[in-house]
Specification:
With 196 residues, the protein is mainly beta. It has three helices and five strands; from the N terminus they run H-E-H-H-E-E-E-E. The radius of gyration is 22 Å and the shape is elongated.
């Protein structure tokens, strides 16, 4: 019995040309402070006009899809720059960032994202599609950075089972003491400086 040859990625991607996407968001100091805390380091100066460290704009432009919109790999299952590859699997292949100016706290950061290129290559595991997305960053109309991200995609091999979808997150119930109160100590509230 002969197996029918699967469609090549070159054929699947022929004519795929998603247009540009424009987005903008105010540069808030909270994500930068949260990332510094994650690194267990002192945050950089985060007053109005202070520049973000290089690449920390990622936290300003971070998407927050609903859990139901995620695929089995934990990334959004659908998206503007996701190629129409059947049973696609993805991997980050690399990127480049050129800083052209500061990104100040309090500014409105604009981003224009475009498809910069698609290349199909053959590897040991079959065909691979390299997709490059270019992000042009600007503040008040002035260019402040250019970032390119290379993502490699491939189809799941014939006969391979799909990975299981992650289970939706369910918040844990709060433990209580026999009197109904919380066993946790009060924590200081960052906004008022008082315990709550």
């Amino acid at each position: 019995m002969t197996r029918r040859a699967s469609t090549s990625l070159v054929e699947v991607l022929d004519g795929w040309a998603p247009g540009a996407v424009h987005s903008s968001r105010r540069v808030d100091p909270w994500p930068a402070a949260a990332f510094a805390a994650l690194l267990d380091t002192a945050p950089p100066p985060l007053g109005p006009g202070d520049p973000l460290p290089p690449l920390w704009h990622w936290f300003t432009l971070l998407d927050h899809p609903a859990q139901a919109e995620l695929g089995a790999d934990g990334h959004p299952a659908d998206g503007h720059f996701l190629p129409p590859i059947p049973h696609r699997r993805r991997m980050f292949a690399g990127g480049r960032y050129r800083r052209l100016g500061p990104i100040p706290i309090g500014a409105e950061l604009a981003c224009r994202s475009t498809l910069a290129g698609v290349t199909v290559k053959r590897g040991r595991a079959g065909e691979l599609a390299f997709v490059t997305v270019r992000h042009e960053l600007s503040v008040a109309g002035a260019a402040v950075g250019v970032e390119e991200q290379d993502i490699v995609y491939r189809s799941r091999p014939d006969g391979a089972s799909a990975p299981a979808r992650p289970r939706p997150h369910r918040p844990r119930r709060r433990r209580t003491t026999p009197t109904g109160g919380s066993p946790c100590r009060p924590t200081p509230c960052a906004c008022s400086g008082s315990a709550r």
